[in-house]
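It is worth pausing here to work through a concrete case rather than discussing structure prediction in the abstract. The textbook approach is simple: state the sequence, then state the predicted structure, then interpret. We follow exactly that order.
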Amino acid sequence: MPLEGEWARSDVFRVLRDICPNANLDWPAMARQYDFDLASLDDPQGTVPITAWHAVFEHVADVLGDDATMFDLFNNVEIGCFSIFDYLFACAPTLREACQAWVRFSPIRTNAYRMIFEEDETGGYVEWPILEGRGEWRQNMFGRIGWATQQIELALDMQVPPILIELATTAPVSTSNFQKKYQGRLKFGAAHNRILIPTTLLSRPLRRNDAHLYDIILKSASSELDRFGQMESPLSRIANEVASNLSNGACTLPQIAAKLGMSQRAVQRLLEKEGTSFRKLSEEIRRSAAERYLRGTDMPMKEIAYLLGFSELSTFSRAVKTWFGVSPKKVRDSSGLTGRRTTLFAGSRPDTAEAAE
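Step two, the predicted structure:
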């Protein structure tokens, strides 16, 4: 398929297909339903739309009847399933350099976001930015956490390394072996999707490191970066910057344009080309984030209001009533909005009347 808009590598679907061979999964039907090219699963350079990348994971978990299974499925895949990206981590000199390689080369996996790695006095963390408005990402994130944790386990040669895992969504109804293994080290309803690593582990030499081999791996990854890194979605950059700055008050057009190193007019032109505006985009992101926080966490209302950039709880409550037609408490308590999650880049925004139905 053409590399247009927001995409992710399709090999994750191939892996999902191959580790669920006996499941009642109709991949041709899924390809039609979620609008991706079935042939891309076996194409080493294949991609799928980011909305399909999320939706298929939700679909498969639903068919399997187990909302925790992605943890186990991807915590047990073989190293190398995701090509060079696996070896960037496994063969790095240290855990710190492995995490840094993930960040540097994440554009070969998707153009919808960049991974984050930061350190403080206690340790470092690898974070996957929350993609507001691209459909439900919960099961996809469970799979990514299962896979990333396995990479850390194998790199350190530890069954259960002393890491902490935070997920910005609710705990699954089912219970996986992965959850049992990391009991007490796995927090749901957090503000981030990330893995926290103690400082003592970051400098640890990794047993698979070989300087010559790693040089070859880096050159191969750089070649892929030359191909895929040019396909960044400018709209994603804007949307993700807005989402990450909601709570700090730096979410106006001039401020976001400055952070992106773009002129205000350039941002406006790009958004106009995509059929939206800065006001509409930021409103959709707030709406999507509000629904996620209300339905996917037990955070207090005041904290959610703050995270969305509202200075007053009453202002937040009025905004929620406009978006969903009910109070924040009713959004949290209700199951009627489950299938109404906002998708920013797949169709126009429902107007206020529709949202209040």
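Step three, interpretation. The CA atoms of residues 242 and 252 lie 8 Å apart. The first strand starts at residue 7 and ends at 9.
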